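Hi C.,

You asked whether I'd gotten around to modeling the 166-residue construct. I have! Everything is below, sequence then structure, no commentary in between.
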Amino acid sequence: MALEGAFDIDADRARTFVGEFGGRLYAELEAVLADPGVAIVANLTSVSQHYAVTKATLLAGKYVYSEKPLAPVLEQATELVELAKERGLLLSSAPSTVFSQAAQTLFKAVGDGLIGTPRLAHGNLDMGALAFMPYSEWRGRRGVPWPYWDEVPNGCVMEHAGYQLG
């Protein structure tokens, strides 16, 4: 499966993305959803847009991989999961580390009783050094700013610390 193209509400960002990774430059989300060559949409929008974009994509009959969180509130996430089930579509969301070889090996070891019965698990999450970094100035290779204004208040940053806790 090849990259068909990209759409971004910021046309310059979409143009530089397509310039680097190839594919077609879509002028609007509706064009992506109407394209029969697009089977799956990677929803990498800001957190506040995850629900609307994922729902529109599922309603268009396409599979979705969404950046985390799937939706800002549980009821919306539940609705998306039900919609995907009803339509027979695959829906996945970050983090995908639960599918990694390390995580799957651990799950199998626990399931097979190789380490006995776990009695206690403890995790501690915090933003760590991020709180002291100039993240408002971060830019990707193409000059795209990190959307801290949407990521930090929605808990996405602190949540990174828990990826390996499965």
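If it helps when you're writing up: The beta strands are 5-6, 24-25, 40-43, 63-66, 91-93.

Thanks,
B.
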